[in-house]
Design goal:
486 residues, alpha+beta, outer membrane lipoprotein receptor (LolB), chain A, 2 domains, seven-stranded mixed beta sheet, 10 helices, 24 strands, 35% strand, elongated
Length: 486
């Protein structure tokens, strides 16, 4: 028996155990000091008011722009750390003038918004993070989740970085400065658009409120751009807050596929041209040897649904092309699934370099089909006009030059069928006879100008944001909506 070797192994194991104990003691000390400095031990509720900006993820005017900005005229958030629960009330105003990008622009006047989160057994982790990434909640979560700590220098500043593993298996890091206050909390969440997406909150300008230190500047980022930039004006600690669940039941998430039992509504628009509803609309076209699908929206679930339905409607043929109207998150988050299917993405030329980078991003938190199959994407691009035809069907792709919604926005026009497929240039109202708005959206005005400029003979419009009643949207309805006779 080699006792020397055993002794060395035993010594190594002992040292490792001692390091582990020291680390555990260190993180307890670091969290205790942070909790004391923040006043987290005695903080049960907080309500703060702010002004500033919010920005809508994935709705930029072009691939190199930050997310579009909206003004938060007022912003009030209440947090109950014991429940835990959070409620936000804000009044939002137009921030991009002239309007540029998506996010339901332009906002006319003042737009009230509310969001309530009450954490329960089934609350998604990404919603819980809205609370756990706050400084006072972070120290509580870290203490409960067996956190570790290490020293790290960032931009010349020394931090104790406390780390725990979130419910989605991603690390959550809190950067604690030499005053025992939290400068930043970061983690990663899954995005069908950006993959393993960095989500970070930065905190600065702490002030004392009855023994509780609270940051007067809060900046959140997702996808490397801000989604919130708030300047806090007032803080109330341990005041009574009433946070109750909203009345009524909401619909499914935008990317969710409807229940299989409900089926997928479809309509034959013309010979070999099919409308697929049940989510964001898509159109499948029966070319001689293959299928062309117009739009790959929302999510892998919705894209899979569209692919399945297209193959039912047009059996025995592969999907060779998917036409992408523009790069916004809700209109392109299903493209990866089409790439995995073997389809070539047809998009405006401004998007190609962006998509090449986008489709290469890792999706390890929730691996999708493209991540598993690792297929290389292929592209065909549109400048101002591109014609797709098999000698029978003709699909013209036109760039909506001058649209403020998206620099690379394209529409699909079927000259023989006199059908126009468009996204976000005209979103029909819920009711077909709704009175026209007091002012016409510049995005809709651009669509009409483009139809006139391109001399398109349109009789029927297929909006990707199809009306909930699944009605036939005519060119006449569009003209009535803008107060112009057809």
């Amino acid at each position: 028996m080699n006792t020397g070797r055993i002794t060395r192994f035993a010594l190594a194991a002992l040292l490792s155990a001692l390091v582990g104990v020291a680390s555990a003691q260190d993180v307890k000390t670091v969290l205790a000091e942070a909790s004391k400095a923040l006043g987290a031990d005695t903080l049960n509720t907080v309500e703060y008011s702010a002004t500033g900006f919010d920005y809508v993820l994935g709705q930029a005017y072009n691939p190199s722009s930050p997310w579009p900005k909206f003004i938060n005229k007022t912003y009030t958030r209440a947090i109950d750390f014991k429940t835990p629960a959070s409620k936000v009330d804000r009044v939002r105003m137009q921030g991009e003038n002239p309007p540029r990008g998506g996010g339901l622009q332009p906002v006319i006047g003042e737009q009230p918004q509310s969001q309530t989160i009450i954490i329960g057994p089934t609350t998604p982790w990404v919603q819980q993070l809205e609370i756990w990434m706050m400084p006072h909640a972070f120290v509580k979560a870290a203490a409960a989740k067996n956190a570790t700590v290490k020293s790290q220098t960032v931009a010349g500043k020394r931090y104790s970085v406390v780390t725990f593993t979130g419910d989605n298996k991603a690390l959550v890091n809190g950067y604690i400065n030499d005053q025992h206050l939290i400068d930043k909390v970061e983690t990663w969440i899954d995005s069908p658009y950006l993959g393993d997406m960095l989500f970070e909150s930065s905190y600065s300008n702490y002030r004392d409120f009855n023994g509780v230190k609270f940051p007067m500047k809060i900046v959140q980022k997702q996808g490397d751009y801000p989604i919130f930039d708030l300047t806090v004006s007032d803080v109330k600690v341990n005041a009574p807050v009433a946070i109750t669940a909203p009345q009524g039941r909401g619909g499914p998430p935008a990317g969710a596929a409807p229940a299989a039992a409900a089926g997928v509504p479809t309509e034959k628009l013309a010979d070999g041209v099919f409308l697929i509803l049940g989510g964001y609309a898509a159109v499948a076209v029966d070319f001689k040897d293959y299928i062309v699908v117009i739009e790959g929206p929302q999510s892998e679930a919705r894209a899979t649904q569209i692919i399945t339905e297209a193959k039912k409607l047009i059996p025995g043929k592969p999907i060779r092309y998917v036409v992408n109207t523009h790069h916004h998150i809700d209109h392109s988050s299903g493209l990866r699934t089409f790439v995995a299917e073997g389809a070539t993405v047809v998009t405006h030329e401004v998007n190609k370099p962006y998509y090449e980078k986008l489709f290469a991003l890792p999706h390890t938190l929730e691996p999708d089909r493209l991540m598993r199959e690792k297929r290389t994407p292929t592209f065909e691009t549109v400048s101002e006009k591109k014609v797709m035809t098999d000698g029978n069907h003709v699909v013209e792709l036109h760039h909506l030059k001058g649209s403020g919604h998206n620099e690379g926005l394209i529409v699909a026009y079927f000259p023989k069928e006199k059908i126009l497929v468009e996204a976000d240039a005209f979103n029909p109202p819920a009711q077909p006879n709704a009175p026209p708005p007091p002012s016409v959206s510049p995005y809709t005005a651009n669509l009409i100008e483009s139809i006139d400029r391109l001399k398109l003979d349109v009789q029927r419009i297929i909006p990707i944001h199809y009306p909930a009643d699944n009605r036939n949207v005519s060119i006449g309805e569009l003209m009535r909506w803008v107060g112009r006779a057809n």
